[in-house]
Request: fold
Amino acid sequence: MSAPAAGLALDGSAPAPGVIASEMAVLGAMIQSRPAAEEAAGTLTSASFWLPFHQIVFEAAESLAAEGSPVDPAAVLGRIPRIVPGRPVSSADGTALASLIPRAGAVGYHARIIAADSMRRQARLIAERILQRTGADCADPAQAAGDARRELDEILGAGAADGAVTAAELIGDVLADLENPVDADRGIPTGLADLDALVPGMRAGQLVIIAGRPGFGKSMLGLNIARQAAVRMRLPVLLMSLEMTRDEVMHRIIAAEAMVGLEVIQRHELDDGDWQRIQRAHDRIAGSGLIIDDAADAGLARLRVRLREMARSGPARLVVVDYLQLMHAGKADSRQQAVADLSRGLKLIAREFAVPVVVCAQLNRGPEQRTDKRPMPSDLRESGAVEADADVIMLLHRPEYYDPGNRPGEQDVNVAKDRQGRLGEIRVGFQGEHGRLVDLTRTWSPSSALEAP
Reply:
């Protein structure tokens, strides 16, 4: 697509009136001084400019400023052949440079005009691509919507000017905040006392990974955390269950809250005592803030949709995803890249919606090949990117699984990574018959049926 001449009628995909003049003003200032070039480079990229020659001049001035070299018309003119390999410098280039309008001091004003119009043009192109992708033969509407959302996020992020803040602006608010006691707003507890002592609340923007081999209680701990926040604390919680149906999730919640055997519930063999305990737990569960989405092919796009729906009545305070490797991923060169994209997307969602995202994840067979069977972060299946993206990693281990006589009914939770807290390992009670993990007490035993608080 070629740029129209200035003064001609422009359609919606071309710059608005006055933008070309702003481009000339910014470039005119950039080629006169390095500070002006640095200021413009902090807001714009070469793609922000409409005219190809203006893009070339911007890249030349930006590269000189980045090197710490003087920025002047002669230096910029000499840099152009290096920006465009094989393109000879012509007299027209010198004439074009001379035509740029130097307006030092107005760089920020004109840069904002250019950035805003560039964002408008990019949004229009994305809209056109959405129309193409969502035609009658669209194979995956959710993927098309997710791609569009990602592209829009990219241009919005590129145009954001409020991502950086000085320490002087922050210190007053931070110190004032430290005078207040820690409360529920500071983080969501797991509901397990020893684990909460290590992980002082799951905070907005955090990606928390619960990892273990199949049958080691990933879903149990994830559901424990969701139940603590939704049922006990009455917070809005979104549970994306890709492995269990909504009925299976509710069976586990009822079993854990009412202390009724999960197997009894699944077989519909409840006696009068079971029904009485369920009745006592009914109001707690019915009044909870838990929302369950059990779509088996859910992906990042669906998760965003659910969070935006919840935001209309009250934003989610916690997200639990069970589990990572079952999530629908977009096109990728490999499964490792697909999982890496999902991991990064979940972290971005945690930041965007200011909510902790707890994700269950499978471990590979590495622990089974070691003598002590204990998992390590490097055992995370299919992608090391998960280990890098996570703020907190909890690794699950059950000695009883490999040796039936070794600490029956106990579960180890190893906090192997925590950007904000301490590392360590704690023991909890594994009550598989009630679908829950509990704090260990002196009176605890694998078969005990403690009343739910």
Confidence is low (pLDDT under 50) at residues 1-11, 159-163, 442-453.
